Amino acid sequence: MLDLTQTLMVLVVVILTAVMTVIGVQMIFILRDFRLVLQKLAGLVDRTEMILSGMIQPFTGVGGLVEGIKQGVGVIEKLSEILGRHKQTTEVEDYMERQ
After folding, report:
1. In the chain, how long is the greatest CA-to-CA distance?
2. Where would you find the membrane-spanning parts of this chain (predicted)?
3. SS3 string of 52-79?
4. Can you list the residues of the chain whose pLDDT is less than 50?
5. What is the pTM of this model?
């Protein structure tokens, strides 16, 4: 027959096993909920990234437009310099021919 010490040891082992089993099941539930939270957070980050990229894209287009206008103005300035020099040269040649 079992004496009191052995009975208490068996009882303690059974209780600890039950407690550890409950803790393990709770940990599984906690980890599952944590995974769901991470999935929702990843979806939120993806949506935020799409929204922000959609907001930034028009500004990028405006920047390209402004850069194009700057380049166009530069080309016009160069052409006017070339034509202005040509015009001055033509005026000087006309003056020289008249003399």
Report:
1. 143
2. 6-31
3. HHHHHHHHHHHHHHHHHHHHHHHHHHHH
4. none
5. 0.49
